[in-house]
Structure formats: structure tokens, C-alpha cells
Amino acid sequence: MAFLLTLARGTFAAMMVSGGGGAHRQAPAASQPDTSQITAQMVAAGRGIFHGQGGCFVCHGGSLEGSPVAPPLDKKGKPWMAAKDGTFPEIFRVVTHGVPGTVMIAHPNGISDALATEVAAYIWAVNHHSVKP
Ligand code: HEC
Fold first, then answer.
1. Domain residue ranges of the chain, discontinuous segments joined by +
2. Which residue has the least CA distance to atom 40 on ligand 1?
3. How remote is the CA of residue 35 from the centroid of ligand 1, in Å?
4. In this structure, what are the phi and psi dihedrals at residue 67, rounded to the nearest 5 degrees?
5. What radius of gyration do the chain's Cα atoms show?
6. pLDDT tens over the chain, length 133 residues
7. Which of 3, 63, 89, 130 is the most exposed place for a label (fewest CB within 10 A)?
8. Which residue, 82, 68, 87, is CA-closest to 127?
9. Contact, 92 vs 116, CB < 8 A?
10. In terms of Cα–Cα distance, which of 53, 79, 83, 57 is closest to 70?
């Protein structure tokens, strides 16, 4: 999708030189074409944002296990809420648009779209590729 092409531009070069060597990178499935752009580097960067600059861990827990104020993001079979089916674009949409009427604000801690792409990649990979939270 065009917006992902734009947002992922910064990491695209890294993906090309990595040669797809990321342990968790897989060929794109027909139902998830956007995720072909997710690299191990993006996931690692997203992990840092989740536990650092983005402050996500404060509400969602250090192991994505959730808390009294926020749902788990390591679903382990539990249903998604605002992010609907838990696809990469849906997770990205929630991070960049928030969930109106809740404390899940758009761009938590003021993270940029580029950082939101990486943190969404991390959450997606935890749920779809057994990446450790
Ligand atoms: C102040 C607490 C708080 C912070 C900080 C926060 N969230 Fe949330 N988040 C929530 C709440 C509450 C919800 C559930 C909103 C609802 O009722 O649907 C949520 C929902 C979500 C969802 C959708 C979950 C689902 O089941 O569909 C995602 C994805 C998400 N947050 C990602 C993030 C990321 C990434 C960050 C950091 C950049 C972050 N959140 C920071 C409170 C927070």
C-alpha cells in the first residue's frame, strides 16, 4: 500500500542490504501484502520504542500482557479490540489515530509516523511470528 511504502522508506534500504536475513521475515502472504516490508531491524527498533520513547509499556505492560487500564497486545488467541483483526495496517492505524474516547491517544508520547510503523511492526511480529515481546 502506498502509505506503507512512504512510511517504510527509511527502513527500506536496510531491508535491501539485509537480504531478508531477518529470522522472522517471511515471504508475503496474499492476505497480508504489506507485511513483506517488515524486517527484523524494524521489529527490533519497534521493541525499543515500545519499552522506551513510546511509553507503551506503561499501560500495555512490559511483556505486552496488558494492565488494568489497557488490553494485552500479545493476544495469544484473545480477540483484538480497536485493531479489529490485528493486521499490520490496523495496528498502525490505532497507533496513529488512537481510540477516541479512551486513553489510547494518537501518536502516544508524540512518536512520529516512522516510529509508529516500527512499533506496529513489533506488535504484529509478536502476534504473527512468535517474536518475543
Ligand atoms: C495511557 C495508556 C496507554 C498508552 C501509553 C498506550 N496505550 Fe495503547 N491502548 C490503551 C487503551 C486503554 C487501549 C484500548 C482502547 C479501547 O478501549 O479500545 C489501547 C489500545 C491499543 C491497541 C489496540 C488493541 C486491540 O486489542 O485492538 C494498540 C495496537 C495499542 N493500544 C498500541 C499502543 C502502542 C504501540 C503504544 C505506544 C506507542 C500505546 N498503545 C500506548 C492505552 C494506552
1. 42-133
2. 56
3. 21
4. -155, 175
5. 14
6. 444 444 444 444 334 444 444 445 444 433 334 788 899 999 999 999 999 999 999 999 999 999 999 999 999 999 999 999 999 999 999 999 999 999 999 999 999 999 999 999 999 999 999 899 9
7. 130
8. 87
9. yes
10. 57
Residue 111 near ligand 1, beta carbon < 6 Å: yes
Tell me which CATH homologous superfamily contains domain 42-133. Answer: Cytochrome c-like domain (1.10.760.10)
CA–CA distance, 56 with 110 (Å, rounded to integer): 12
Instruction: State the pLDDT at residue 21.
Output: 42
Let me know if 42 is exposed, middle or buried by CB neighbors in 10 A (0-12, 13-18, 19+): buried
Substitution candidate for ligand 1 out of 50, 59, 118 with most atoms within 8 A of CB: 59
Instruction: State the pLDDT at residue 66.
Output: 98
pTM (predicted TM-score): 0.81
